[in-house]
């Protein structure tokens, strides 16, 4: 299954959307997907598993997930006790603010989780009550549509990001996710793909050999646990890297395609458009025009 490109109602003046206190069954939850927006997910109740980037996380009440743009992720609710959660989606520009003489940046929490490759914050009282209150106010402002509601939502978003930044530990060396479903080689293989996704020979046979299992067994278990084929997952990782290079370098399309592991420029264009909905050239021009910065690796 190719990762779904989640679509948004594009409003360049207010790039913000949310889903408030939604309870989804496994059948109604989106499959693996990625998008350019920043995403925050807060869990009120229920249990499940969250697959983010290359790791699996328990989902339970009070968990806060910070998901940078262009990160493959999928929530897997427990069919017996499905998760109720709120999700916010917004462009970085919406949370931009002028420096006030200190080092604080509201978006630093996204850089922290990306660099640590650990996307979950376990909240405790009184932070849970504060988070739920802010999310409730965002919903009320949106529903009432009173004058200044957009400004109010921007301020509330800044408040939410401040809480998240304060909750995030200063340093978490050696942190590992809560959940390790499947055989041990799955975790090792996801890490291997993360490091070698640009290798031109990377594929099912290489990964199966590295895991010391047959290609058929590797393929079956990998799709069962991640919801994606090996090829689709590698393509998604390569396109995420390509987006970074398109915005951060002046490399030609041929150079970027080669650096990301694609054998030909037409294949790169085809995969990029299937996952992003636009061509690499349009993505580069749009990103540079809006000042969208490429995230750190």
Quick summary of this structure?
This protein is α+β, with helices and mostly antiparallel strands and 297 residues long.
Description:
Helix content is 43%, strand content 17%. It is built from ten helices and ten strands. It is globular and about 55 Å long. The two termini are 25 Å apart. One of its GO terms (molecular function) is sequence-specific DNA binding. Pfam families: AraC_binding (PF02311), HTH_18 (PF12833).
Total individual domains: 2
Uncertain runs with pLDDT below 50, 5 residues or more? 290-297
Structural class: alpha+beta
Order of helices and strands: EEEEEEEEEHEHHHHHHHHH
SS elements, strand count: 10
Keywords: DNA-binding, Transcription, Transcription regulation
Protein name: AraC family transcriptional regulator
Domain HTH araC/xylS-type: 187-286
GO molecular function: DNA-binding transcription factor activity; sequence-specific DNA binding
Which descriptors apply to this entry?
Arc Repressor Mutant, subunit A; DNA-binding transcription factor activity; globular; five-stranded antiparallel beta sheet; Jelly Rolls; three-stranded antiparallel beta sheet; 2 domains; about 45% helix; alpha+beta; about 300 residues; transcription; single chain; disordered C terminus
Write the layout of secondary structure elements.
Blueprint: E1 4-5, E2 16-23, E3 33-34, E4 38-45, E5 48-52, E6 55-59, E7 63-67, E8 73-77, E9 84-90, H1 108-116, E10 120-122, H2 127-144, H3 149-167, H4 184-196, H5 204-211, H6 215-226, H7 230-248, H8 253-259, H9 265-276, H10 280-290
Parallel strand pairs: 1-3
Antiparallel strand pairs: 2-9, 4-7, 4-9, 5-6, 5-8, 7-10
Helix pairs in contact: 2-3, 5-6, 7-10
